[in-house]
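Two folds, back to back.
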Amino acid sequence: MNTPLKDRLLRHMKDGHYEPQSKSELARALNVDSRQRLDLRNLVDQLEEEGTLVCLQKGKYALKRERRDLVRGKIRILRSGKILFLPQKGDSAAAAMGWDLDSIPELELKPERLNTALDGDQVAARVERKASKGRHNGRKSASSASNVNLKARVEEVTKRARSRWLGVFRTGKNKFGRVLGDGSGSPAYIELTEAPAMEVLPGQLVSVEPVSYGGDKKSPRGKIVEVLGYADDPHVDMEAVIRKYDLPVEFPAEALQEADALPAEPSARELARREDWTDRTVITIDPASAKDFDDAISIRTTPEGWVLAVHIADVSHFVQPGGALDREARKRGNSTYLPDRVLPMLPPRLSDDLCSLRPGVVRLTKACEMKFNKKGKMLHARFADAYIRSSARLTYQEAFAMMNGRDKAGIPALVKEAWKLASILRRNRYAKGALDLDFPEVRAVMDKDGRVTDIVTEEYDESHQLIEECMLAANEAVALTLKNRNRPTIYRVHEEPDSAKLFEFGQLCKLYGHPVHDIGQRQYLNELMQSIKGSPDEQLLKLALLKSLMRARYDTEPLGHYGLATPNYCHFTSPIRRYADLVVHRSLDPLLANPPKGAKGPGSVAALEEAAEHISETERVSASAEKDANRMKLFEWLEGQCFAAHPEVHDALITDTRHFGILLEIPRLQIKGLIKPDKLPGGRWVYEAFANRWKNDQGFVLCAGLRVPVIPVKVDREQQWADFAIVPRENQESPGKKIVKRKHGRHRPRK
């Protein structure tokens, strides 16, 4: 590094009158001759990489320091292209300037205000009020409650969400080629600075290490460090998802060593201090494909009602605070479930073995024992460390068969008794105003090479509801106890929805013919959802409501859960796959009937706040990765259907009509598509713009709100879009609805 030049540059920038300047402006200000200009540019890049300098808007540079006039937050770039700035809760700069940013979840940014930030990046943004039009301009104070008129501009990227970029390699004018990213987690255009060390062909997916992030009208630059292969090669699509979201795959050696050192059997001393449940019937109910079983139930009847015991794998016994396993679990935050693999939060030694409540094996648990009366009211809850020997590992299908069978004793009787209580709890929950947002699960069935062979829908039946109600009851009981005993912990919170988004949802429901009142009040929202139930539009509108609600997250304050209509809620029942549950177990330890000796607890409130924010983010990243991966497999299957002899027919809902075709949505698959005019059967069709519909010469019309049977005819897997063709139903000459014309002429005389 040119030390004299560096000293001159830093002295210049530390001057109290310095204003951010571009590289060219810095060169002129420092009187750098043409021979040293390249050295200056390299020096600025190096200081930026080190974190000494930051690149601001329009490629201007400043010393990195705490900027008290900037609001901290994160960037979200949605699939639609919308760019959002999510302010950090309780930001001191926002409070100092009078912005009530805690009351709104996001501010929309224009692309030119994004600087070099990408999806998920932590940034410092300047928040200002938009200039008002008209004579009232400037009359509102900075403390005005209206945040609708606020705008944000990214000034600095404080932390990058991803260490690598992902894209498709292309040759071009640049001698080393270029990489085209998705414009969200990776730049849309990446200029390569050197030839790759490995062979790479045009069209292959590659991983790129950033060299510079661009700005000042310059493209981001990088170098290829890995070639994944073509997108349709086996497993490459899933590897691409892992790289795109920077998901951790391998466990550190230290964490694996710590897991391997754990004893295979609990010690006699450990068992002696715990409650023995091995002589009672305890069962697990999980998906057929599940490998880890972290929850189990047991139930018995009493004259007053029932005693329900929920047993949860005692992960906190094996994962000690601050250890290698704990550090890695916290870093991951949760397990991620891709169609062809699981990226677990804990090593398989724990998730698939020591902490898995397998049948016939002694396993350590946290027990939540709850007494209910015959109306489903919880009378009492107690908590203890226990050990069980699971009597049976049931799949949902097996449990459902038992619930509807005639067996009068043994495990089927336990399942039936549990459903009696669960059905009452479920009815009570909806009576309190809980929202019914359950969806059938659509998943891909794959062969050994990772290629999709089928798409199946798993209905959310009573067996799923049984387990859900038992787990919800335990989560609520634990949260209420921790709150009442003032124990620091992490709660699961779901805040009140934004009124404007609820209004938009109500307007959508009106378009589909459903009566809408003041759905800002829970009573009327539930009435609306009841009216939707069973209608052809149910799944589509439930999904629209879900999108209008706030995203559930973790917090150290018990802010309640809007969707479940409960003021007290936490995550307690899945510590194998969620770090939040592990924290809650540690918070609960001192309150157990038999607390473990020397329990350290979950840490300080400040540490919990940091952990809550972190695991909220890891959950969001995992959810996005899972959704991306599932959609990839769905479109792979749709592409195969285009060439199938007997493709599956889908029930599609027309959402809009345009001159270029008919826009539709398939609620079951949650995908959108297009029917082009040449794929409309049954006569000659014309587009009537004045009526926003397509009409044929037989008097049939196609317009928004109608349902039509379709098959895929063309699929763009990269853009995740499909073209469809209408398949007329049996005994139907033409799709759509028939226009009935009233005959004109003289009125018939009255009889």
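---
second:
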Amino acid sequence: MGVPQESDVPQEIELKLQCEAGDLAELSRHPFLQDSPQDAASDQDAPRPETALLTSTYFDTAEGDLRAAGLTLRVRRDGDRFVQTVKAASAGAGLFDRAEWEMPVADEAPDLAVLGDTPVPAVLEAASDADLAPAFVTRVERRTRIVRYGASRIEAAFDEGRIETRNGDAPLWELELELIEGRPDDLFTLAQALAETVPLRLGALSKSARGFSLLDGTLRRPSKARPVRLSPEATTGEAFQAIAQACLAHLRRNEDVFLHNRHVEALHQLRVALRRLRSAFTLFKPMLANDPVAAPLREEIKRISEPFGHARNLDVFLAETLPAEMARRPDEAGLDDLRRRLEAERDRAHDGVIATLEAQEWRSLILDIAAWLETGAWRTRREAEAAEDTAAEGAGREGAVPEGVDPQAPARDFAATVLNKVLRRIRKRGRHLARLEAEERHRVRIEAKKLRYGAEFFGSLYAGKKAHKRHKAFVSTLSDLQDHLGTLNDQATAHMVLSSLVTGPDPSEIPGETVFAAGLAAGDNEAGAKALLKAAAAAHAELLDVKPFWR
């Protein structure tokens, strides 16, 4: 069940920023976060407490029906007051612009009688067991100030406390910037200014999402991309924003996991999130063409994350390729030394990833992307006359995507045109696939990956059983092509990993038996390439026979 999006539903616009234990004290002394004298004077008759102890209990059914519907229900105790709040979930990260319903209640138990204007009653009515029970509790010491920044009034909340669940606890250190009046871009500009002093990160999860993740044991585990839910009536701009924000949330969840425990799958999912985000920029290029920030942002994402690829290649080789080789040749003496050397290289590569993720340059880039998704020039149609001229010129080219696509144009029409274009490129570039050189196959693989992400991004625009069935068949066939091309790519990267080891700065230090073992591993790894090429060509032909779900 979805959450209503009517314009008269109360909205909360707040930016959540993560930090470490000692950072909140330093932030509280920052000159940009001091109480506004103007607001302090106007509030003399109703002074705001500087510090409050907040205990919030989150409720759900035994089956988690509210969470499944994208809703949270909590009752917060603030001194002698009890406030009940219903919030819609957000698929993005950092900026939470979402529906919120708040009302006073008598005590810490939920009051269903005052929930009539919210989606909760409908969810509970459809639930098999509508009884609500406490799920977890947050205990937070909150210090609040009203500050003025730019053209906006902003409430700055310094939160320090814990999330307590039956499956364990977790600390909380957050800065929340809530827009009282003004412009959302002021929230991000203020955050960037603060991040020059304190290592702030864009919030990955709300308090409620962290609590539920603690309950189900997923908080410190890698996570795959979650489905993007688009309304069939969505505009092209709405679709891009939802898709890119989902990619950013996927990135931030796995970034936190890798920083915490260096889980190799978290690094893989972090790279997947980055590729999906860059693919979104590429797929929506016709709409972003008139925004001067779009292309530089995409290139900066690629540049700053380039070292992640070497670390991932080593992870794959050590987890898959080398164990298979050691099982195939258990008596080969050089393989153990090869493993130790590659593990040391992998540790150095992981150190490099951590250094990147901890750098201000990275944290600032993530904030820049989040800010641009909310306030960038792409959100309004710029240079309208030039765009219309370009569209008219492109009309003569069948299936061409005109530059300057209006963000208000229907997403379904835009998606169909873009997906058709990518599919044609795969058809053209994949001809005689089994005879292509490695670099040409790689280009086909990139286009296939782009089409796969596009199919995942746009699938929900096409509702109905028939469209769903076609979508499933199309993605399945596309996955087969990707798998075969991916295995061939793994062979190529494995060869690069081994070559870089034995041709490094001082190859004379590597024992001869290790070099010999590396040569055997390279040869064995490339065995079966001919069969893979044949299978990839067959999958390519099958893809061209499958009915596209968007037609």
